[in-house]
Design a protein that fits this description.
alpha/beta, Spore Coat Polysaccharide Biosynthesis Protein SpsA, Chain A, UDP N-Acetylglucosamine Acyltransferase, domain 1, 31% strand
């Protein structure tokens, strides 16, 4: 069994954060999304992983991930020259995958509970493919699966006006070697890409065995800023709180039992309520950090109140008169208030290296 992670997207829906960073490396609960995916695949017992990279983000991803040894996996990078579709990513990965079965995982997805059960189901049956589905409230916004009476896949349809079910494709798939017949048989879609849904439908139409795995827990596609905040909240709730030995919390501060404080962080005359994580060497001074906030490494927060937000590394938030919430603050960004004015509130997505005075 091998793993294949697709990390070639440009992340246009997460701009401005992704103008200067691969979307898969944006952290949730202070761990980059791509690393969470690697750990999820590893924890399911798969250690040989290919990562499809492309465009301007390939070098950053390769530098960040390296050979994978720090996560006890072996990483092979597969370059996709242009974004020609998920099925195209499978097609160019054939040399790496060979005849092995594999799990394919979109590199910007976050899921509860891992994929060990998915892999066990696939190993225990003679299926050619298995796709993860999730019951959703608005299936018309997703790729949707229709099941047969025997619970196998009947057909897939993209964003139907009249959905045949409420089961949406999550972006995690199991395949055996027959998928290569499919990706070589299909034609590009109207948007010029080789679609993985077309490849799966080809398997169904040619009498290969394709079954679902319906996921009961939460799942988030982190492609948009609000969804990134949702995923961050879910993951923070799962963390086992920990205070690093080298972290400093002074006697004038109040830090509740659901807060993780990483190495070298300092909390001075502040209130921090979890679930929340304070990153390495961050400084929280004369401030309030509320629930569902991730403060990344090297961040400085002074004289401010923040909740339900993500602050990326080396950013600064200072002297805000009103609470900052539901916001993403990019790397090295500075957000500072002019205390002579009375802002009613702040909601913002701030690009890396920005300077904003309010």
């Amino acid at each position: 069994m091998k793993g294949l992670i697709l990390s070639g997207g440009k992340g246009t829906r997460l701009r401005p954060l992704t103008y200067t960073r691969a979307k898969q490396l944006v952290p949730i609960a202070n761990t980059p999304i791509l690393i969470r995916v690697i750990e999820t695949i590893r924890d399911a017992g798969v250690s040989d992983i290919g990562i499809v990279v492309g465009g301007d983000t390939a070098a950053e991803i390769q530098t960040t991930i390296g050979d994978g040894s720090q996560w006890n996996v072996k990483i092979t990078f597969i370059e996709q020259a242009s974004p020609d579709g998920l099925a195209h990513a499978v097609k160019i990965s054939e040399d790496f995958l060979g005849d092995d079965s594999f799990v394919m995982f979109l590199g910007d997805n976050a899921i509860e509970g891992g994929i060990r059960d998915l892999i066990r189901d696939f190993d225990d049956n003679d299926w050619n493919s298995q796709i993860v589905l999730k019951a959703v409230d608005y299936p018309q916004f997703y790729g949707v699966a229709k099941l047969r009476e025997d619970q196998s896949i009947d057909y897939l349809i993209e964003k139907p006006q009249d959905p045949p079910s409420n089961l949406a494709l999550v972006g995690i798939y199991m395949f055996d070697k027959h998928i290569f017949k499919a990706v070589n048989a299909i034609k590009p879609s109207s948007r010029g890409e080789l679609e993985i849904t077309d490849a799966i439908q080809w398997l169904v139409d040619n009498d290969y065995r394709v079954f679902p795995h319906v996921h009961d827990g939460w799942w988030v596609d982190t492609g948009k800023a609000p969804d990134l905040l949702v995923a961050n909240s879910y993951v923070l709730e799962e963390l086992v709180p920990h205070i690093a030995e080298t972290a400093t919390i002074d006697a004038d501060s109040e830090v509740d039992g659901r807060v993780t404080v990483q190495a070298g962080a300092k909390i001075i005359n502040s209130v921090v309520r979890g679930p929340t994580i304070i990153g390495e060497n961050a400084i929280i001074e004369n401030s309030y950090i509320g629930p569902f906030t991730s403060v990344y490494h090297g961040v400085v927060v002074q004289n401010s109140e923040i909740e339900h937000s993500i602050l990326l590394e080396d950013s600064r938030v200072e002297d805000l008169d009103m609470i900052l919430r539901d916001s993403l603050i990019g790397r090295n960004a500075v957000v500072k208030s002019d205390k002579n004015k009375k802002p009613r509130g702040l909601v913002m997505n701030v690009a890396d290296h920005s300077r904003i005075w309010i």
